[in-house]
Amino acid sequence: MAENTIITRVLTSVQQLDAQTWNALLASQTTPTPFMRHEYLAAMERSGSATPETGWNARIITLWDGNELLAACALYLKTHSYGEYVFDWAWARAYEQHGLPYYPKAVLAVPFTPVPGSRLLARSPALRVALVRAVQEWAAVMQLSSLHLLFGDADDLAACEQAGWMQRSGLQFHWSNRAGPVWQDFEGFLASLNQEKRKKIRQERRKVREAGVSFRTLAGPEIGAADWAFFYRCYERTYLEHGNPPYLAPEFFAAMAQTMPENWVMFIAERDGQPIACSLIAVSADPARVSAQNLDETVTDQALPAIKNMAAYGRYWGALERVDCLHFEACYYQPIEWCIAHGFASFEGGAQGEHKMARALLPVATPSAHWVAHPAFADAIARFLDREGAGMAGYVQELQAHSPLRRGAPPAA
């Protein structure tokens, strides 16, 4: 394939691409997640959640050789910085103070979804770099202030670095099962924690039980229309209590129930037979299939790595009643217990939250890459990122010194 045969096409919707073609390209990447699936991105558009009206104007940058899709990425023109979870408000203010427009900018990201994973879908490292350069050339023609690749994986960051983009590191808190013998149950997990944290978790779980709250867990197609409707009531309530409308429309979750049911697990808290709260996690594979594999004692060595690489992602929660420690139970302990029981290797707790360390979710760096058109601002931001990076390294070191794992426990996988 000669480089001069590659054609760049810019689309205005992921729906202009065939779902099977997009998903096949995604599946070939190092870190595919459900959130980059065609169905997920299309639901963002169709539901009105991520549209030009909400400040997310899609542009799908694609590379082709004839009718063969070689590389693609989902990019959004932005008129604000909400829903990104990599914060550049200070950069925008600096532009404004100098009389320069920061918006529109563009992000290579999944709207409202701070989950690390592949962003630049390409058939080879060389094509990934070509895709980055195509995006950058398009941004220059569009006279955008900047480009931001958010929560990319190592392959994405390497391609961006080769193209001269600046690197930035954020922080999330993730739980992972052990290397060596994995935890077989929640008690085994607790045994790996120091006495203070182990006692605290048991106290928090006991408070929820003594309040008369129990949980019903639904996976995949088990989640019915009434369950989804109840979940949205809880989800919406949480946003409204904080003075903001929810990012995602009910139609988005209706689409998930229809097109990606196998990627969701719901934990419904009940008291006196009535639902009072709900949390929703996403999973990287069909829970029913993974459960069947775990129960099969003849799982092959070839299948085992696939099971152990399964990931779960904490996403949304809400409550109609206040119960002490219910948030911790619904959002951390129930999902972790479920992950252990179903052979999932990791549970990502989402954006921010130092308090998650007390629940054995440990600090993990989350990278991003940035291209800034204005040379003087690019230089200033590069110096800022150097200082920020040094501060972040020190912060992570300090957090690691307060690990909840007891001394002598094996390191996280």
UniProtKB/TrEMBL annotation:
Q: Which one Pfam family would you cite for this protein?
A: FemAB_like
- Which InterPro entries does UniProt cross-reference here? Acyl_CoA_acyltransferase (IPR016181), FemAB-like (IPR007434)
Gene3D superfamilies listed in its UniProt record: 3.40.630.30
Q: Which SUPFAM superfamilies match?
A: Acyl-CoA N-acyltransferases (Nat)
Q: Which PANTHER family match?
A: ACYL-COA
Q: What is this protein called?
A: GNAT family N-acetyltransferase
